[in-house]
């Protein structure tokens, strides 16, 4: 759906990870691994999680074919559940359009708390989410909390205010808006730092 090239947000994330000497991250909702592979090719160790066993298999196969298995660890995981890692396990967290999946606000708060728990102090959590400027916002079946369903797919849309409400354990370093794809999707790129 998104091709094999790294996303715009992964390129920005890599710059920030390099600048902060981050060498081991957790990627949530890794999909088919286009950003996972990009980080690994740039010497960042990635523990990649996704809900889909087939997506995880694809990333595993890609990492093996590209001889990146030393840099990539994959796991199937439902992100509504507690993360299977000890406190302070990672130097950074990255996710592209995970937050705008069909999570309720309380599920997002729980996810944010878990990310905070597994990150070391001063680590970065970099994520993207579709925002209120998106052409699909307020279209389709409304499910409450800015969740709208179109064609059987539910999207959670974000305002800057909602992003700032999800800062427990973090301070916000930046929120930038960008377009992705030919549609285009209107996204917010969020960089938070664990305090």
Structural features:
single chain, 195 residues, alpha/beta, Rossmann fold, three-stranded antiparallel sheet, globular
Summarize the structure.
The chain is α/β, with parallel strands linked by helices and 195 residues long. It has helices at residues 8-19, 34-41, 53-65, 105-118, 160-165; strands at residues 24-28, 45-50, 72-76, 90-95, 119-130, 141-142, 147-150, 153-156, 170-180, 185-194. The chain has five helices and ten strands.
Describe the protein's architecture and organization.
Strand 7 (147-150) and strand 8 (153-156) form a beta hairpin. This protein starts with 7 loop residues before the first helix and ends with a strand. A 7-stranded mixed beta sheet has the order 3-2-1-4-5-10-9. Strands 6-7-8 form a 3-stranded antiparallel beta sheet, with no helix packed on it. The protein has 5 helices and 10 strands. The chain has helices spanning 8-19, 34-41, 53-65, 105-118, 160-165, and strands spanning 24-28, 45-50, 72-76, 90-95, 119-130, 141-142, 147-150, 153-156, 170-180, 185-194. The mean pLDDT is 96. It has one domain (8-194): 3-Layer(aba) Sandwich (Rossmann fold). The longest helix has 14 residues, at 105-118. The chain has 195 residues and is α/β, with parallel strands linked by helices.
